Amino acid sequence: MALTYALLVQGAPYTHQAALSALRFGRAVVERGHRLKTVFFYHDGVHNASALMTPPQDEVHLAEGWRSLHRGQGTELLVCVAAGLRRGLLDEGEASRHGQIASNVAPPFELTGLGQLLDAMEHHDRMLTFSP
Amino acid sequence: MTPSQSLAQDLAELDLIVVLRHAPHGSQWVREGLDVALVAAAFGKRVALLFQGDGVLSLLTGQQAGPLGQKGTHPQMAMLEMYDIETLWVSGSALAQRGLMPDDLMLPVRVMDVEDCRAVAHAQLPTLVF
Fold first, then answer.
1. Is A49 left (phi over 0), alpha (psi -120 to 50) or beta?
2. What pLDDT, in 10s, does the model give residues B49-69?
């Protein structure tokens, strides 16, 4: 039976294994015929959404990995706005609201509230947390 | 009603368990975990908090923002009652390991033994760990 999955990612990219394990798990979910509906980035996991992420070419590109899940599956890539603002992750709207000189969160990543995390827990069959 | 019956009743009525395992200062774990609990309660979810390990320190009385320059989490703790989050579970062994008693804590809690924690795990409720 195909299940719908949500992931909660709380680890910063490259600092800890959590984000890469979450991405690999997300790909495996899809390969097994399930649906990865939502990835929610919280705590230091919000750094996964940086549009400026520039790893060396011989390393996995985490942000690109998340974007490819969105392209293939329509997976929602949700970033907690409060956790993001504190850590300097802003989309164009937030950057202009706060008078910042630049933004670094772009679609398909979306800044959103914690209500969306609770929605994902409630509406999908499985929710897994990846923390450092 | 015996304590284990009241725990079973709590478990039957809950929508979400938020586990807090970190000390209140030095990281954002407790703050951001409590944020999830408060938002869930504001959405009408019935939430329990389970304090384990250093997480029990976030319940200590007499906290201040302090010299670390962070806001601290005690103002959020004070808001729990207003959001009807009154199911507060504390690991008895975590308290004992830190030389603490329930009287040292700012809110009334249920002290959990190993059997209680086993019952919580077996209930398989939606759980977020911070």
1. alpha
2. 999 999 999 999 988 887 788
CB-CB under 8 Å, B35 with A82: yes
Q: Where are the domains of chain A?
A: 4-130
Minimal Cβ distance to B36: which of A117, A127, A131: A117
Q: Evaluate if residue B5 carries a pLDDT over 90.
A: no
Banded pLDDT at B97 (limits 50, 70, 90): very high
Output the six-digit token pair for A116.
């969306």
ipTM: 0.92
CB interface of B with A, residues 31-50, below 8 Å: 32, 35-36, 39-40, 43, 45
Q: How far is A118 from chain B (nearest CA, A)?
A: 7
Q: Nearest-CA distance from B81 to chain A in Å?
A: 20
- In the CATH scheme, what is the code of domain A4-130? 3.40.1260.10
Domains and their CATH numbers in chain B: 3-63+70-129 (3.40.1260.10)
Instruction: Please answer yes or no on whether A115 and B43 come within 8 Å at the CB atom.
Output: yes
Name residues whose C-beta falls within 8 Å of residue A70's C-beta, 6 or more positions apart in sequence: A76, A77, A108
